[in-house]
Structure to design on (667 residues):
């Protein structure tokens, strides 16, 4: 079987296996899987409002998925997307509430603040990896918790006077659109989806069509070969983490400037960063793949909220299915072995 | 407030918070010493906490005062079984260890909440009536000064954690089993050449980590949280991972790091009642474990080296 074909078939099989195991779990627990999946579908696409919410959810998912995927392509595992997402969210809201500027300056300024915050948060693990060979996985995990606690502290003590929620951002920094909202029966759909799609294109162009992108991919394939060819491996490692963090910070701005317009003190993680890992893996770390995987996961997440109402099934079932999909994509080695064996039998 | 009074408050609280971290960090040590990265500690703790609480609520009338201890054993078994998923993925299916660990965390979170809603019909369980109680350790409590600080108003589980850490150190560094475990984590091909079954040793490493992670979660649930909801285990497993690294993949180091992180956690909660500590903003104590872990990895506080073959797959016949 050709590599390209198995690259498309493996994720599809992983999704199917995830859904099959999810069905088995429902049957064991005495739920009706057909009504559950019908409720899921209706909750994602049944009404125009739900569709707007799916697109709204897909927006940060695309960017978080791009963030993880970009680092993966350079051979780095950025588990810190969650933390970079939070600091990006915080920075965008901070700029959004504290300045009074015309929209044409204010909105880009808030977005750039989020990008810079995310990039800075990823720069630390990047430089530690490049200079001191510290494993980026551990550092980014630790940076997640530092981001969580520091942002909670800033919200409580600096941005507000011991409140759990900041004020709303100014209209001039908002991504919201009355037109998009009224079109989708007043969902929280906002302009961010355009930014996310543009970013998909940027990532594809950067990696596949520029010299820098070639260098980054070369470092991902083989660091020693890249070094031997005269590329600066350390600088590319730092650059890839910074770009990855920039995508993640931008994802935070989508929630900060679009969906919510404020930031609250958090007891735990939002989960967007971890879902981003699942999306990048399922999408095969390509821009187009991330786009489709984000749509799938966005629809699953939003549709799941309808499952308890319509079918009485806890919406956590979707979290289980997502985890199983990650598991099966990660185990794609065994799927490929099975496919090959299957293919050979056909030849005989 | 005298120093003595402060210590009487701080020490038992530190040990209380440290116990789950120590157990889970020891679990991580076993897994990573065998060469399997285990980011899934958080998920394993979650399974342990969930199992312990459900068992405790269901069987409290049958077993009475022994319930939390039996729940601990049940949670241990559940953790070990759940970790098999990670073992199969990371060892047999050659999945990326980190990705598989992330899947374990996502799966545990989804599964536990799904089952809580399925069993109890709401997002959290009731509060258990019999958790681990404060006790005075007999005999030792009568030692002057030390007895009052360390052995009164404390928990059996904290001392169990210390004892298990010592046993783990002995097993890993002084027994043939430990030598084999370390050898497959450092150089699996050499170990294989000497007739050690790499796959079996790695499976054992992961299963032990699941068992200990399950115990860690069960202790946390039955002595600190007292019920199970989505927020019961939020970051404890990653902090245990940090303790394992801060302890340089050594059980005694994990013990020390666990106690220190337990101290930071307990201070961030009770600190406001202590004199000279209430002026320090909470945030420094909350982020201390994570910052210190990064510092120790960068070599500013002694260099930490992971086992050589940590996170790699061993494929027979490949060089």
């Amino acid at each position: 079987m050709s590599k390209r074909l198995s690259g498309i078939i493996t994720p599809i099989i992983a999704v199917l296996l995830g859904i099959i195991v999810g069905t088995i779990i429902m049957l064991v627990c005495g739920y009706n899987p057909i009504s559950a999946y019908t409720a899921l579908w209706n909750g994602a696409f049944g009404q125009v409002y739900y569709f707007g919410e799916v697109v709204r959810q897909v927006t940060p998912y695309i960017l978080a998925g791009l963030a993880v995927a970009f680092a993966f392509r350079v051979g780095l595992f950025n588990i810190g997307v969650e933390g970079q997402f939070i600091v990006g969210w915080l920075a965008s809201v901070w700029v959004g509430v504290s300045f009074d500027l015309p929209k044409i300056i204010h909105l880009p300024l808030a977005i750039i603040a989020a990008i810079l915050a995310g990039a800075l948060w990823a720069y630390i693990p990047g430089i530690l990896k490049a200079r001191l060979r510290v494993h980026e996985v551990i550092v980014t995990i630790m940076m997640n918790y530092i981001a969580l606690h520091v942002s909670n502290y800033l919200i409580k003590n600096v941005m507000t006077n011991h409140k759990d929620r900041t004020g709303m951002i100014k209209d001039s920094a908002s991504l919201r659109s009355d037109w998009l909202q009224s079109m989708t029966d007043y969902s929280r759909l906002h302009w961010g989806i355009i930014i996310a799609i543009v970013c998909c294109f940027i990532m594809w162009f950067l990696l596949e069509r520029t010299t820098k992108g070639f260098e980054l991919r070369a470092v991902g394939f083989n660091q020693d070969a890249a070094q031997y060819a005269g590329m600066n491996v350390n600088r590319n490692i730092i650059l890839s983490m910074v770009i990855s963090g920039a995508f993640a910070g931008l994802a935070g701005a989508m929630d900060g400037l679009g969906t919510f317009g404020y930031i609250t003190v958090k007891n735990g993680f939002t989960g967007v960063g971890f879902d981003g890992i699942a999306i990048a893996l399922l999408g095969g770390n390509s821009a187009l793949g991330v786009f489709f995987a984000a749509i799938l996961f966005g629809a699953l997440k939003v549709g799941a909220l309808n499952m308890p109402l319509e079918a009485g099934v806890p919406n956590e079932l979707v979290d289980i299915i997502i985890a199983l999909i990650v598991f099966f994509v990660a185990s794609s080695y065994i799927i490929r072995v099975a496919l090959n064996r299957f293919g050979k039998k056909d030849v005989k | 407030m005298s120093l003595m009074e402060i210590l009487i408050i701080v020490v038992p609280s530190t040990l209380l918070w440290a116990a789950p971290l120590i157990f889970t960090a020891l679990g991580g040590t076993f897994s990573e010493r065998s060469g399997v990265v285990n980011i899934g500690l958080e998920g394993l703790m979650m399974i342990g906490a969930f199992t312990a609480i459900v068992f405790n609520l269901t069987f409290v009338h049958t077993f009475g005062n022994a319930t939390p201890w039996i729940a601990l054993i049940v949670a241990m078994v559940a953790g070990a079984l759940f970790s098999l998923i990670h073992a199969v993925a990371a060892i047999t299916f050659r999945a990326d260890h980190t990705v598989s660990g992330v899947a374990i965390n996502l799966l545990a979170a989804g599964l536990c909440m799904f089952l809580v809603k399925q069993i109890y019909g709401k997002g959290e369980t009731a509060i258990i009536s019999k958790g681990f109680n404060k006790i005075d350790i007999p005999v030792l409590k009568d030692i002057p000064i030390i007895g009052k600080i360390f052995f009164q108003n404390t928990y059996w589980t904290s001392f169990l954690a210390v004892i298990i850490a010592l046993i783990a150190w002995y097993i890993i560094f002084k027994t043939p089993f430990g030598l084999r475990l370390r050898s497959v984590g450092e150089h699996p091909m050499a170990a294989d050449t000497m007739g050690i079954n790499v796959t079996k040793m790695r499976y054992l490493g992961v299963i032990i980590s699941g068992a200990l992670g399950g115990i860690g979660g069960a202790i946390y649930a039955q002595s600190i949280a007292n019920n199970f909801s989505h927020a019961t285990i939020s970051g404890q497993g990653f902090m245990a991972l940090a303790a394992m690294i801060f302890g340089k993949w050594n059980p005694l180091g994990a013990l020390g790091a666990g106690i220190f992180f337990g101290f930071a956690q307990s201070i961030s909660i009770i600190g406001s009642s202590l004199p000279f500590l209430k002026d320090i903003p909470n945030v420094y104590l909350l982020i201390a474990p994570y910052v210190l872990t990064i510092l120790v990895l960068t070599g500013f506080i002694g260099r930490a080296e992971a086992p050589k073959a940590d996170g790699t797959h061993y494929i027979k016949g490949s060089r």
